[in-house]
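Thread title: Can someone regenerate the structure for this chain?

I was given the following input by a collaborator and told the matching structure tokens would be attached. They weren't. Posting the sequence so someone can regenerate them.
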Amino acid sequence: MHCRQCGVQLQENSVFCQSCGAKVMNAPKPDQTPESSNCPVCQTPLKPGALFCGNCGSSTLPSRQPVAQQPPSPPAYQPPQPVYQQQSWQPPLPVQNWQQPPQQPWQQPPHGKPKRKKWVVPLVIILVVALAAVGVFAFAGDSVRRLILGPKKAYLAVEASSMKSDASDWIEDLARIGNIESDEIKGGAIVGLSLDMPGMADTMDPMLVDVLDALSVRLTSLYNRDEDDPMSYAAIDLQTGDERLLTLELYMEDDQMVIGLQDIFDSWILIDDASLQSTLSMVELDLPDEVSPIALLSGLTSTDLGINEKKMEQSVYALIDIILEHIDEASYESRQTIEAGAVSGTYGAYTITITSESLQKMLLALMEQIRDDETIYDLYVNLYDQFYGSLQVDGYFEGATDRETWDNFFDEAIEEIGSEIEPEDAFTLIQTVYVDGKGEIRGRLLNILDEDDETEATLTYYHPVDQKQEGLLIEFEDSTESFSFLAEYDVDNEFKTGVASLSVQGEPVMKASFTDLDAVVIDDQDYLLGDLSIEILDDTAELPGNIIYRGSEEDGVFTADIGVEGYMTATIEYKKLSAADAEITLYNTSNLVRIDDQEALMGLLTEDAMNELLDILSRLGLDMN
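Best answer:
Regenerated them for you:
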């Protein structure tokens, strides 16, 4: 056993260290039997050479006073100095296997009071307050927002969220439609059309009605937009039931078209810019030589507007911010009720005010933003090029997309809008916006007041929700015109079932019923699913029945029936094709006839070709003999 203070090995049953005098922890009481060499204070027997008593810690020198118990010394160890006796001096016994204890920094004794960290309590308080605030905001966010921000800023936050969310959805749809060429390299679709005309036998030739009833059209459209060899293909099949009668094929390339009727003619008809220009001139439709008719037609078969969704969002968001910056005033009222037929809802209502001066400043800022926005300008250029790009030559829209032309247009508009508003032209817009507890807008009421604060026009949009029942009311009224559209329906998993009506000038003109109706996007395609029946109440329409629509989708095939009930119905089927199903089989390039080669075209009308055509007409039920 060693001393915990100086490391010296202790004698058995020692209470104090014989080298440094430190008290030994958990030491047993020493034997009190007196011996010849005893401690001068407690008479405990001593070992030869001991400098301190192992029981009481007193010096063994007769001339020293009893040593009181000392508190623990700091860990820095200092070896004891030898003490010389006045009488027969003896050196201290050597310490066996003694080593210098490791030097450690001094620490507070374990029984001391710990030092308190002063920042802990304030931090705990802050965290508790923050958690409480989050909880309050979660259960009463709209109220807290209004309390902190005020009604105007609270309204702006709600309106900005709603407008920007709608804008993002619109931009996503625009990019999905407008970027088809850049998004997909290969693809296609199959569209089928058939007619059912039970009520037209009294107004048309019965034979023709039978032919049209039996006839169906199937259009297969394929495209390959590979940069090296772009091509599109269309095949129109005429069928009776499952029997194919005739197929018209069309290949569209950058600089030419090729048309084939392989069931009748062995050759393909070639149409390029030169031959098409010549053909158009025969019907007195002349285009400048620089214009490519093929390019015009090709532009109608593909769309590539180059829309960057992120940049377009930033541009539209900037316009929304400008609109909201010009709100003059805003107030708030709780628990305001709106109604759409029998459906009602109670919501918070923000009422905002925009004067004609603020609206003028808003329009000026919007015009300047649109004029200077490169993303919006690029979209305009791409749209224009898509439909009119090939016509931008002398006399045909030349320079319509120049940046200078663009800037001049907006500069003139800004100058006109910026003119001083005459007192009699002053007006005020007052809009009440109804917001539910989730921050969704459920209604708008817009009033336009003249300079005398008299109402000139009112536009109403109410969309109350009561659990699974919803209503939709859209109304407009001014001094000369008015209309009202009302729908009430139940909602089950986004599908709507209910009734609707339309009135003009207070007179009902239409009523409708619908079942499981909803507009959905499936595989990047828009579909209207459900059943719809519309009754026209205006006698001047003279419709023999209700207008009907039925839409369904199954296994990737969308089917829609559109027509007049009991009179005529057109059935349309649509299926999107994947790249694997969109391989284009090329035509025979060695057997081409130019469309402007009249002699070669007449040579196609052989006896065999005419007999084939008569056979097709016979199978349709048209006997030409």
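The first helix runs from residue 120 to 149.
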